[in-house]
Amino acid sequence: MRCPFCQCADTKVTDSRATDDGKAIRRRRECQKCGRRFTTYEMVEEVPLIVVKKDGRHELFDRNKLLNGLLRACNKREVKRQQLEDIVTKVERNIRNTLAQEVSSEKIGEMVLGELRSVDEVAYIRFASVYREFADLESFMAELQHLMGTKEKK
């Protein structure tokens, strides 16, 4: 780290602490040449995550948009908001762990469905009906039968 006063590259860290929100590290540094002290902040740089929509459009990943979709699917269900926030966090973490900069909306939807299924089956069907765009009663029934078939195998 260069000294902001004399531009010398030789500085040492005298103190390190996490910030109040825990998202950065505050470092007190001292220049070895001029002896002046200054503060730097170190934080994780998150690469923007791009979602590729079904129609080919690209947009930034928005965890609030995903959470709102889950909240709509769980309307009037006994599902705690924290459970839904945990699902969104887990899905986002799994996507970021792949180190891909782009992810399809289909992949996100499948990941959410995988998590939502164990939380509430009615919410799962509601989310699936919007995500998979059921065109008719047959496609809706096919999803229900699939859900019931895998439930019987357990």
UniProtKB/TrEMBL annotation:
Listed InterPro entries: ATP-cone_dom, NrdR-like_N, RNR_NrdR-like
Residue ranges constituting the ATP-cone domain according to the UniProt record: 49-139
GO molecular function terms noted in the UniProt entry: ATP binding; DNA binding; zinc ion binding
Cofactor(s) in the UniProt record: Zn(2+)
Zinc finger unnamed: from-to: 3-34
UniProt GO BP: negative regulation of DNA-templated transcription
Signal sequence annotation: none
Cofactor note: Binds 1 zinc ion.
Pfam family, one: Zn_ribbon_NrdR
Keyword Disulfide bond carried by entry: no
Protein keywords: ATP-binding, DNA-binding, Metal-binding, Nucleotide-binding, Repressor, Transcription, Transcription regulation, Zinc, Zinc-finger
Domain of life where this protein originates: Bacteria
Functional description taken from the UniProt entry: Negatively regulates transcription of bacterial ribonucleotide reductase nrd genes and operons by binding to NrdR-boxes.
Entries under PANTHER family matching the protein: TRANSCRIPTIONAL REPRESSOR NRDR
Entry similarity comment: Belongs to the NrdR family.
Protein's recorded name: Transcriptional repressor NrdR
Organism field: Megasphaera elsdenii CAG:570
Taxonomic path: Bacteria, Bacillati, Bacillota, Negativicutes, Veillonellales
Gene transcribed to yield this protein: nrdR
